[in-house]
Amino acid sequence: MAPSDNTNTEGQPNEGDCVGQITDEERALRLRLSLEGMNGVINFILTHRFLDIGCCPGGYSTLVMNICPNATGMGISLPVPDGGHGLAIPGPLLPRFDLQLADLTMFDLAPDFSDTPPSSSSLQPIPFDRNTFDLVICDAHYRQRQPINDPRPWSGTRLYISQLLLALHAIHPGGRIFLTLWRVESPLTAQILLALDRISTSTHTLKSRSIHEQRPMFYVLAAGIQTNSSEYTTLVYSLKKLWWTMTFGDVGGQGRDATWTEKEMITPWDDVMTEAGLALISRLGTPVWDIQSNGLLRFLQSQGIELDVDQL
């Protein structure tokens, strides 16, 4: 049985910036320390050429370039006037970093689709060649909470799909994708996890104990991406269809939310509900849930609220 197709319960991260009103330099430091902690669990930062999607203020890129002194990178971030963060990468590292200021959802992510409406003239070409990065970090998010009256309430889902599609375009054969996700148990997240597992040699989940401990945000690390597989080709095509629908679908070419059936192009729900599918979700979800539940328990105890854990 499939969950109800409700755009507001999809579990998408529309809560805005997780660290509140701090400077770009302070946020970059927190992000750098956060990634450093996660890399200490699984030593996955090894790269010659990396892409950081949603890069500003640059904490993640700073750590990557510090760990890999010969690496060069590209970052994509929303311009500050449009709601993005400023750049706070230390000056000595900047010659190794190419910053592209753009709305990543408005790259031409499906140039091979011939039925694109006239409004597509505002699209920008993807600013890099296909399969050129061995590490892709995807951490794009809304800086402010998505308005309740947003004319495109599916914007959170569209951002998810856009950055995953961009990552798959960027990744070198055998490379690694480090992707922000939200709520292991949400339908779309589960479908994405199974899809990434199909096209990679290994998948792991990581969760920041310093800035995301009590929140449902986590990361999936998909290693050994098989870009020559039929599963990869099928997933890319499915994501292109979803991006096109959410960008240009419906009357007037203004986009619409993807239906439940359309999202099943990522992974059929029947596949999620198989014994193997549920086992994968359990394996990937358990480390995330453990960290989050322990963080919430410590928070409650700090507020003087005692719980009998054995009764939970």
From TrEMBL:
SUPFAM superfamilies: S-adenosyl-L-methionine-dependent methyltransferases. Residues 46-222 form the Ribosomal RNA methyltransferase FtsJ domain. GO terms for biological process: methylation. InterPro entries: RNA_MeTrfase_FtsJ_dom, SAM-dependent_MTases_sf. One of its GO terms (molecular function) is methyltransferase activity. This is Ribosomal RNA methyltransferase FtsJ domain-containing protein. It comes from Rhizoctonia solani.
